[in-house]
From TrEMBL:
Record-given protein name: Elongation factor Ts
GO molecular function, one term: translation elongation factor activity
Keyword Cytoplasm listed: yes
Keyword Disulfide bond annotated: no
CDD domains, sorted: UBA_EF-Ts
Gene encoding the protein: tsf
Similarity field: Belongs to the EF-Ts family.
């Protein structure tokens, strides 16, 4: 049995960020083999991930990056179980690592991002698992990427909600202010789509059925139900699709009118909204 020194424990702690007692236990179990000890700590993180798989992750931190030319945005959100963990340096550093990796690799999906190798040869997923072993909480990564003529971004003051919004037909307009306003609108008003054409058919069908049931409950004639339901559907579109929503800073304008007023023909091509715990 190899003798485990304080220097050995400190070395493994520096390598992994794990607690002192966890490092000592892993080194003892691995008979002083550092790589084997790292594997033991990683397995500990996986056990925690499996054990806490059903736990809610309502805290966390969102980070965003937009390319210098403004045509691509990356947004990562790392969720955890408690507010205290969301504030620790190792957690924030992992969020930044995830964002840097997204920018470096131009990952198209969450799966690609998690699989991306880091300088130490480990994947981003392995780094997340390692931190779960260290802090004893479930961590969950959300990733969004967006390419457009111009991409604007916004992170809410609680650092738990973020948006990427793509603008098109911008002409020569300075889109910084209006892009931020539209992104803030998306955070606050939670639109389900850019406009009615983007609303999922299942949502449309559900809203029509709800409208019919409400009208029926009010005693309206069966022959009128479809027309009444369509009216309610149009109201749903106005309240829940971005371009048709009233601008929260000036309800005399819709978002479509705000953009067109800023630059004739400007509109939104797409958006991504991420919220932790909501």
């Amino acid at each position: 049995m190899a003798a485990i020194t304080a220097a050995d424990v400190n070395k493994l702690r520096t390598m992994t960020g794990a607690g002192m007692m966890d490092c000592k236990k892993a080194l003892t179990e691995a008979n002083g083999d550092f790589e084997a000890a790292r594997d033991i700590l990683r397995k500990q993180g996986q056990k925690i991930a499996d054990k806490r798989a059903e736990n809610e992750t309502s805290e966390g931190f969102v980070a965003v990056s937009v390319s210098e030319d403004g045509t691509n945005g990356k947004l990562v959100a790392l969720a955890c179980e408690t507010e205290s963990v969301a504030k620790v340096a190792d957690f924030r550093n992992l969020v930044q690592r995830a964002l840097d990796t997204a920018v470096r690799t131009n990952a198209a999906t969450k799966e690609e991002l998690l699989a991306a190798k880091q300088d130490d040869g480990l994947s981003l997923q392995e780094h997340i698992t390692d931190l779960m072993g260290k802090i004893g909480e479930k961590l969950d990564l959300t990733y969004a990427t967006l390419t457009a003529e111009k991409v604007a971004s916004y992170i809410h003051s609680d650092s738990k909600k973020g948006v990427l919004v793509g603008l098109k037909n911008v002409g020569g307009a300075d889109t910084a202010a209006v892009g931020r306003d539209v992104a803030m609108q998306i955070v606050a008003m939670k639109p389900v789509a850019v406009d009615k054409d983007g609303v999922d058919a299942s949502i449309t069908e559900r809203e029509i059925e709800i409208g019919k049931e409400q009208a029926r409950a009010e005693g309206k004639p069966e022959a009128m139900l479809e027309k009444i339901a369509q009216g309610k559907l149009n109201k749903f579109y106005k309240e829940n699709t971005l371009l048709n929503q009233e601008f929260v800073k000036d309800n005399s304008l819709t978002i479509a009118q705000l953009l067109d007023k800023t630059s004739k023909g400007m509109t939104v091509s797409d958006f991504k909204r991420v919220a932790i715990g909501a």
